[in-house]
């Protein structure tokens, strides 16, 4: 099946039952899940994907920055500061070190979203450079 663009005017968005383009349901209005907005999303952000993307990556929206910082930490250490990297919602885990997570997220903002900067910070840290070998004097 081929889907085509029908011009510059947005077409009504319809619910697709079970994600199937052949089982078209009722027209739905654009919206963001309430768990993501917490009342902070403007009506403009609901109007298009571009506005939604701009809202999600805005410096005033800490969720995006915290999720990315957690994923970078997870990449290097094998476990994130939040144990549920795919769920930062109400049912997700709590950060083990919230101040560190917030600091890394702030560094992302200050550095202009530079992943290289965060990678460099992590790999040059004393935490990252510690040995993972078992030491008998520390085992009990």
The main sheet orders its strands as: 1-2
- What composes the largest sheet? 2 strands, antiparallel
Low-pLDDT segments, ≥5 res: none
Percent helix, as a range, is 25-40%
Q: What gross morphology would you assign? A: elongated
**Radius of gyration, whole Å:** 21 Å
Mean pLDDT: 82
Beta strand %: 5-15%
Q: Helix and strand succession?
A: EEHHHHH
* Class computed from helices, strands and strand pairing: mainly alpha
β-strand number: 2
Number of helices, where a helix is a run of at least 4 consecutive DSSP H or I residues:
5
Question: How many angstroms does the end-to-end distance come to?
Answer: 63 Å
Summary tags:
single chain; 140 residues; mainly alpha; two-stranded antiparallel ribbon; 5 helices; elongated
Short note summarizing the structure:
With 140 residues, the protein is mainly α. 36% of the residues lie in helices and 6% in strands. The chain is built from five helices and two strands.
């Amino acid at each position: 099946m081929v889907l085509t663009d029908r011009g510059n005017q947005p077409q009504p968005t319809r619910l697709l039952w079970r994600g199937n383009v052949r089982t078209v349901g009722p027209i739905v209005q654009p919206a963001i899940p309430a768990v993501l907005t917490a009342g902070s999303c403007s009506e403009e952000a609901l109007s298009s994907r571009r506005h939604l993307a701009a809202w999600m990556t805005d410096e005033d929206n800490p969720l995006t920055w915290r999720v990315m910082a957690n994923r970078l930490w997870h990449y290097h250490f094998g476990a994130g500061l939040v144990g549920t990297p795919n769920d930062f919602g109400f049912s997700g885990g709590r950060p083990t070190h919230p101040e560190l997570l917030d600091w890394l997220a702030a560094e992302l903002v200050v550095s202009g979203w530079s992943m290289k900067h965060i990678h460099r910070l992590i790999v040059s840290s004393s935490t990252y450079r510690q040995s993972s070998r078992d030491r008998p004097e520390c085992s009990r």
